[in-house]
Each structure stands twice: as C-alpha cells, then as structure tokens.
Write a structure and sequence with these properties.
The protein has 8 helices and 9 strands. By secondary structure, it is α/β, with parallel strands linked by helices. The protein folds into 2 domains: 47 residues, no CATH class; 199 residues, P-loop containing nucleotide triphosphate hydrolases (Rossmann fold, 3-Layer(aba) Sandwich). The protein binds zinc ion (2 copies). The site of one zinc ion has 6 residues, from loops.
Length: 280
C-alpha cells in the first residue's frame, strides 16, 4: 500500500509486524498499538540514533522516520477502536461478495487520496448488518493513524449517546464530552441512526455534525439506513425488516438538517450488493 509507515529498525522477517515496527493487538476494551519488539534497542540504521537525517535536497536536516513511531502509536491508542476490530485492516477485508468490490475500491481510493493538510470529503458506508461496514471504517481509521499519522476517533453512536446522557445527569453539559469528537481530524461514527431516536438524541447529533461541518472536519460513518427521500417513518418495522413498504431511510432517523449536512460533507457508498442496488 502506498504511504505505509515502516520503522527503519524493524525487521522484514518479523512475524508480528512484518516490518512495520508497530504491532496492534486486542486490549480489554479497545485495540492497542505498541512498538514491536523487533525494533527493540537496535540503533536506527538511517540516523544512527541521532533522530535526524539529511534532507533529500541536501539542505539541512529533518527528523528521521524512526522518530514518528511513538506518535503514531499514541494516535492509534487515542482512536478507541474496539478490540474486536484490532485485526480489521484494509488487507484483511474479505471479498466474499463481488457486489462490494466497487465500494471497496472507493475506500482504497479514499485512503490513497486523503490529504493530511487539506480538506477531505467524508464517506458514509451504508448497508445491512454483517456486510463489513465497521471493518472497513475501522481499517480506514487504523490506516490514517498509523500510516498517515493524523488524529482519528472511532465512536459507536449509541455508546456516545449513553455517555452523554450520563454526563447530562451529572449536570456537566454536552460540550466537554463532544469537544474531543469535534477536534479530531477524522471522526468515524459507527451505527449512525441507531438509538431510540428521541428529540434529545437528535439535538446531540445535530450539534456534533454542525460543529464538524463548520470546522470543515472529515466524517466517516456506517449506517444500516440508506440515503434517499424521507419515507415518513421514524422506526423500522422490526418484524419485517426487508419489507420495502416499511423501509426507513437515514433521513427519517437523523432528521433533515443532519442529513443534508451529511450529504454536503460526505459521499455515500453501499455495501451489501443487490438488495441496495435495487432501491435506487
Ligand atoms: Zn516486529
Ligand atoms: Zn532514525
């Protein structure tokens, strides 16, 4: 993959990190990254341990790539990616369904095109449960933290709401908890539209999306609900989830304002093949 980070001291033969110098493993709750043991105490072959190398144009010096390894590890550990997605990488995505290849291609393109210093459109992956949406989003965040070196954060929508609810009950207000979710360069919201869909939940989501919109900050998301015009229902028919008569669209779940912001900020890509294609 283009732009993959490699620690100069890491061993290509290392079975744990395969030459990256950073390994990722499941922690108690969140996936955790650490410098790989193969890096050990070896003196960096590029900078001989000084931390500086000559700049490519011969003018002065710059930081050696070995110096950014611990920052990348920290960025990953601050992302709070769930443990079950520690091994969810772009390389480990399973292409069982040919219908998903175009979306996988878009995800790869997105990660290649991501401009660390520019504005980036987001991506919303929509489709039924079990199509690998969360795997792909976790993989994108992992790549951004470890290979690109930007701050990212994974948040499950319903967990965010219950955390916020707790903080409201203690009268501490929403802003403190939302602040880190506003500041981070790329925010990945899992299961967008899930929840009880109360007015309060709508207000919280509106605040979060509006603040990221105003900051021109990137949003990634997964959702079970497709884009499209309002179906006029707020709750899906759980007894007949596939019945188009009772289908609920994302706009029904998140409201007009949030939905139209998302359309402005993000592209939408389906996962799940035929079912979703037929609806357009
Ligand atoms: Zn290693
Ligand atoms: Zn070095």
């Amino acid at each position: 993959m283009k732009r993959a980070y490699r620690h100069p001291s890491a061993s290509d033969r290392c079975p744990v990190c395969r030459g990256k110098g950073i390994e990722v493993h499941p922690g108690q709750v969140y996936a955790e990254a650490a410098l790989c043991q193969c890096v050990g105490d070896a003196v960096c072959p590029l900078c001989a341990g000084t931390g500086y190398v000559e700049a490519p144009d011969g003018r002065g010096v710059r930081h050696c790539t070995c110096q950014s390894a611990s920052r990348r590890v920290r960025l990953f550990n601050e992302a709070l990616i769930p443990s079950r997605h520690a091994t969810s990488t772009l390389g480990s995505y399973r292409h069982d369904d040919e219908e998903n290849l175009p979306t996988f291609g878009r995800v790869m393109q997105w990660t290649r095109d991501y401009a660390p210093k520019g504005e980036n459109r987001g991506l919303v992956l929509f489709g039924k449960v079990g199509r690998g949406k969360t795997h792909l989003m976790a993989a994108m965040l992992q790549h951004l933290a470890l290979d690109v070196g930007v701050s990212v954060r994974f948040v499950e929508f319903s967990h965010l709401l219950s955390d916020l609810k707790g903080s409201f009950d203690r009268k501490s207000g929403s802003s403190d908890l939302l602040e880190p979710l506003v500041r981070v360069r790329v925010l990945g919201i899992d299961e967008l539209g899930k929840g009880r869909n109360t007015e309060w939940e709508g207000t919280v989501l509106d605040e979060l999306i509006s603040r990221r919109y105003n900051a021109a900050a990137t949003v990634l998301a997964t959702t079970n609900y497709p884009p499209g015009r309002p179906a006029g229902r707020r709750t899906p028919n759980l007894a007949a989830p596939d019945d188009p008569e009772f289908r609920v669209n994302l706009v029904d779940r998140v409201g007009d304002r949030v939905y139209s912001r998302l359309r402005q900020m993000c592209d939408f890509a389906p996962l799940g093949g035929r079912d979703w294609r037929e609806m357009r």
